[in-house]
Specification:
InterPro entries: ArAA_b-elim_lyase/Thr_aldolase, Low_specificity_L-TA-like, PyrdxlP-dep_Trfase, PyrdxlP-dep_Trfase_major, PyrdxlP-dep_Trfase_small. Pfam families: Beta_elim_lyase. With 372 residues, the chain is α/β, with parallel strands linked by helices. The chain has two domains: 232 residues, Type I PLP-dependent aspartate aminotransferase-like (Major domain) (Aspartate Aminotransferase, domain 2, 3-Layer(aba) Sandwich), CATH 3.40.640.10; 105 residues, Alpha-Beta Complex (Aspartate Aminotransferase, domain 1). Helix content is 43%, strand content 15%. The strands form three sheets. A seven-stranded mixed beta sheet has the order 2-8-7-6-5-3-4, sandwiched between helices. The longest helix has 23 residues. The protein is globular.
């Protein structure tokens, strides 16, 4: 079982301390004072009539940042991904993606439901990224038996890992040569750009459509933007209404997203630094193993097997972290799996040090209890 988004299920005791910070995801952030003020001051209109000035401003801004002709502001990243796919492929067609991709694992089978299309998921070796060679081997060309491959999807970042830029160029070049569209799930492309220094536009140049979340590391309360050609966005807007995604005076939310990009994007470097700091502190203590290469704001850790054999339970530690320290963390599921920690604008360097210290203290106490 994946530990994705699984908070401790143990109810905190009546005397549990208030929540200090939450490491489950970067979606748990709350609007900053500056963002709230921007939202309060937002000019609004009816977006179904295409009359909301704050939404127009955000869409034009993101289209310019990404080098695309047009943009569409939506409620969620799942919606922008599904709209991008539905606007480009349909029945008798297929797309290729990583087996860990959000569109494959965490969007409720939306590709099959909305687009009636087939997914060909690829399993990269050793937890790496999919490659051109892997894709070439699975592309389905026309045959009466085939769902013809019409789209390749890449997620960047995926599990906190940055997809190698050179490989994106190789895959994109191949796709163009064979008339295959490219979609980027760029929910955290903001992180990839900060980590690598590669401009957003340079990444997006290689894709026909890109989904960019505002409510993850950027810290906006809601929203995702789909970018692409004018024709694609026109089609996606029509499908958005079909999906029930037409909204009215959503300029309040658009203003929050605009503020997040303008004021909270570049500070993501702090999240990446805090993730690396946490990984170093956990590794130094020796109780848990960091299972990923920390490139952006995610760290995956696994309780060492010898501690499990002694009866130390991560889920019990997770419950103690919440009730005693006010720290919310993911559980490790029904079967031991790496636990995801996600660093965001509400977790400072000082909080990172406190997090590592609390984990190490609780593990030490658990060890003492099982030995006694």
């Amino acid at each position: 079982m994946s530990s994705y988004g699984a908070a401790s299920t143990a109810a905190p005791s009546a005397d549990a301390v208030p929540v200090a910070f939450d490491t489950r995801s970067d979606t748990v952030t709350k609007p900053t004072p500056g963002m709230l003020q921007a939202m309060l001051n937002a000019a609004v209109g009816d977006d179904v009539y295409d009359e909301d000035p704050s939404i127009h401003k955000l869409e034009a801004f993101v289209a310019q940042l990404t080098g695309k002709e047009a943009a569409l502001f939506c409620a969620t990243g799942t919606m922008t991904n599904q709209l991008a796919i539905r606007s480009q492929i349909g029945a008798l067609e297929s797309l290729i993606c990583d087996i860990r991709a959000h569109i494959f694992r965490y969007e409720c089978g939306g590709v099959a439901y909305h687009s009636q299309a087939h997914i060909i998921p690829l399993q990269p070796p050793n937890g790496g990224n999919i490659t051109l060679e892997m894709i070439e081997a699975q592309v389905l060309t026309f045959n009466v038996h085939h769902a013809v491959t019409k789209l390749i999807e890449i997620e960047n970042t995926l599990g906190g890992a940055v997809f190698p830029y050179d490989e994106i160029v190789r895959i994109s070049t191949y796709a163009k040569q064979h008339g295959i569209k490219m979609h980027l799930d760029g929910a955290r492309i903001w992180n990839a750009s900060i980590a690598t220094g590669i401009p957003l536009k340079q990444y997006c140049d290689h894709f026909d459509s890109v989904s960019l979340c505002l409510s993850k590391g950027l810290g906006a309360p809601i929203g995702s933007v789909l970018v692409g050609s004018r024709e694609l966005i026109h089609r996606a807007r029509h499908f958005r209404k079909l999906f029930g995604g037409g909204w009215r005076q959503a300029g309040l939310l658009a203003a929050g997203g605009q503020y997040a990009i303008e004021h909270q994007w570049t500070r993501m470097a702090d999240d990446h630094a805090n993730a690396k700091q946490f990984a170093e502190l956990i590794t130094k203590a020796g109780h848990m193993t960091v299972t990923n290469k920390v490139e952006t704001n995610m760290v995956f850790v696994l309780l060492n097997p010898e501690l499990r054999k002694k009866g130390v339970s991560w889920n019990k530690i997770a419950a103690r972290l919440r009730s005693v320290h006010g720290i919310v963390v993911n559980e490790d599921g029904a079967h031991p799996a790496p636990v995801r920690f996600v660093f965001h604008l509400h977790i400072t360097s000082e909080a990172t040090a406190k997090l590592a210290a609390a984990i190490n203290d609780e593990i030490a106490q658990a060890l003492s209890a099982v030995v006694a």
